[in-house]
């Protein structure tokens, strides 16, 4: 994962100090690209343990067109918990302790963190136990799954049928592999304001040459320490899945970043990671016999020979 470590060094050495939506502050650069040859191993971070199961369940959630965090809670996947929780604690129905700015307060204040953990546990239990509550407070709006599988242009075009971009992508790759239009976009201006979080990985394009399938992602906003390792592995997995569905061989994943940033409260963790030597990449095995990629479960996708350095904890900026 030398490419990723080089990115970390580049931002630490050349990044500009910038404010951000969360109020945390960042070191940031604009415009950066990394390339991963998927024939040389699966690009999951080895300089810190990264939860592959969470990456798998999130990607399958996207591919099924789901936008409700309840599905992820059932899978014990906390990736989107904070955004759904924020919707709940900001609502008029919430009557518990003040959770304002919980993302920054929880790591710094032990007493507050205890309250936050209790409220989050109650929230997740209610999502699982109460379908009506989950429908209201578990739904994240028209985030990735909705845009990938049911793109809609908004009320002005309400008569038009939604577009299943993933189905169109697969059909195009099978029937016209040399096309330059194998594009899926999650950036839908007509629905941005309705999303819990506007898409960070905004647009991707597939490319076929010599029987190999490659993908380039444009990511408008890249949280280098927490988000980017997940994004690399998620899109590498997506290439493997789409290749499987179209009878192609995985080629490259090209990761193009817009605002690439390290949050100010992640700098110590990044420096710790840079002291670690990368280890051999793991390999991927997909048990898909007789199944479409849309029918796969987390148990069907297996990582082998993963031997990372220990996990490094860091707060998420919400």
UniProtKB/TrEMBL annotation:
Q: In which pathway does it act?
A: Pyrimidine metabolism; dTTP biosynthesis
What Pfam family is a match for this entry?
Thymidylat_synt
Cite the entry's keywords alphabetically.
Cytoplasm, Methyltransferase, Nucleotide biosynthesis, Transferase
Keyword set includes Nucleus: no
Give the residues the record marks as binding (6R)-5,10-methylene-5,6,7,8-tetrahydrofolate.
223, 317
InterPro entries in alphabetical order: Thymidate_synth/dCMP_Mease (IPR045097), Thymidate_synth/dCMP_Mease_dom (IPR023451), Thymidate_synth/dCMP_Mease_sf (IPR036926), Thymidylate_synthase (IPR000398), Thymidylate_synthase_AS (IPR020940)
The UniProt entry's GO biological process terms, in alphabetical order, are: methylation
Q: What is its main location?
A: cytoplasm
- Residues of the signal sequence? none
- Domain of life, per UniProt, equals Bacteria
Q: Which reaction does it catalyse?
A: dUMP + (6R)-5,10-methylene-5,6,7,8-tetrahydrofolate = 7,8-dihydrofolate + dTMP
Active-site annotation: 200, 200 (nucleophile)
Q: What class of enzyme is it?
A: transferase
List ligand-binding residues for dUMP: 21, 180-181, 220-223, 231, 261-263
Q: Where is the Thymidylate synthase/dCMP hydroxymethylase domain?
A: 2-318
Q: Where in the cell is it found?
A: Cytoplasm
- The record's EC number reads 2.1.1.45
Q: Does the keyword Ribonucleoprotein apply?
A: no
- What are the GO MF terms of this UniProt record? thymidylate synthase activity
Membership in a protein family: Belongs to the thymidylate synthase family. Bacterial-type ThyA subfamily.
* Classification via HAMAP family: Thymidy_synth_bact (MF_00008)
Subunit info? Homodimer.
Q: What does this protein do?
A: Catalyzes the reductive methylation of 2'-deoxyuridine-5'-monophosphate (dUMP) to 2'-deoxythymidine-5'-monophosphate (dTMP) while utilizing 5,10-methylenetetrahydrofolate (mTHF) as the methyl donor and reductant in the reaction, yielding dihydrofolate (DHF) as a by-product. This enzymatic reaction provides an intracellular de novo source of dTMP, an essential precursor for DNA biosynthesis.
Entry protein name: Thymidylate synthase
